[in-house]
Write a structure and sequence with these properties.
There is one protein chain. By secondary structure, the chain is of the alpha+beta class. It folds into 2 domains: 9-169, OB fold (Dihydrolipoamide Acetyltransferase, E2P); 177-282, no CATH class. It is built from 5 helices and 10 strands; from the N terminus they run ααββββββαββββαα. Strands 1, 2, 3, 4, 5 and 6 form a 6-stranded antiparallel sheet that branches. The chain has a 4-stranded antiparallel sheet with strand order 7-8-9-10, with helices on one face. It is elongated, with a radius of gyration of 24 Å.
Length: 292
């Protein structure tokens, strides 16, 4: 007896084509279950830094309403870690947040859905989602940039992502921090007085520096300067801002030896202590998802 397929032929053909190249295009999707995000890393529980990571990496950010879901099996779902189910999704585009080349009114993509405690996939049909993706090789085909690059849609989430993207794409956006450069320290004329300046290495070569000022009987004060000149009005960045993210998620926990290699021992120790003031003030980056 022959059984009638419930998958339209055009969808089935595209499904096979996408599945064949999925793990080749996305090595992260072929990783072992040891790399599977923990429950706190699931969509909807992402931190500010997680969302900036996604927004910064995605050439396409789009709102969709899911129209059809096809669960994949066998070779089409190869390398799916335990606790996930690979789905082929068809969705209608309801809004384009980022995408220079535009987008088709409907899209198809693959998504590894986390299973609930009963081993069931979430209810996704007719659900609204925000996708961080790149264009596929065929019209209407897109590819998520990561397993968790699909977030539940809310007006607040959309507004936050738009704000983040505006900051990332602004001409004066803080540059990516690659690491620490040289540090300098000048002791004051009285005990407990001194100033440290630490230069940062950036992806585009723009100057960024940290300055830490100590005065007797006062808490150490620090600021970050985006430019050649340290503005006396400069202040530490507010948590949850792009500049804070660039620093908190890129700076090492301690000042490396190469940054103080030219300083006398006492000045090097003072610079390290001053750098610790900055790291403690920034606090943890807050990422909850694996990188790479």
């Amino acid at each position: 007896m022959k059984t009638k397929s419930t998958i339209p032929f055009a969808s089935a053909l595209m499904l096979c084509l996408i599945s064949a190249s999925y793990t080749a295009d996305f090595p992260a999707f072929a990783q072992s279950s040891a790399m599977v995000p923990q429950p706190s890393q699931m969509p909807g529980a992402l931190s500010y830094s997680d969302i900036v990571d996604l927004a910064d990496a995605a050439p396409l950010v789009v709102n969709v309403r899911i129209r059809n879901i096809i669960a994949l099996k066998g070779e089409q779902a190869a390398n799916v870690p335990a606790g996930y189910k690979r789905l082929f999704l068809e969705a209608d585009v309801t809004g384009l947040i980022r995408g220079e080349g535009g987008i088709s009114p409907s899209v198809t993509y693959l998504f590894d859905a986390p299973l609930d405690s009963r081993g069931k996939i979430p209810k996704l049909k007719k659900a609204e989602r925000i996708l961080f993706a790149r264009a596929g090789s065929r019209p209407g085909e897109i590819q998520l940039i990561a397993r968790d690059a699909q977030l539940p849609y809310t007006p607040a989430a959309e507004q936050q992502i738009k704000s983040i993207l505006s900051g990332l794409l602004a001409p004066d956006a803080p540059p990516r921090i690659l690491g620490l450069g040289d540090a300098f320290h000048v002791a004051g004329t009285i005990a407990g007085e001194g100033e440290t300046q630490i230069f940062l290495r950036t992806a585009n070569g723009d100057p960024v520096s940290l300055s830490i000022l100590r005065r007797p009987g006062q808490a150490a004060r620090w600021a970050v300067a985006l430019g050649e000149i340290v503005d006396e009005a400069a202040r530490p960045p507010e948590p949850g801002t792009l500049l804070w993210y660039r620093l908190a998620c890129a700076l090492p926990t301690s000042l490396p030896a190469r940054s103080v290699r030219t300083l006398p021992v006492a000045d090097a120790e003072a610079a390290r202590a001053d750098y610790r003031v900055v790291v403690d003030a920034l606090g943890p980056c807050g990422r909850t998802r694996p990188q790479g």
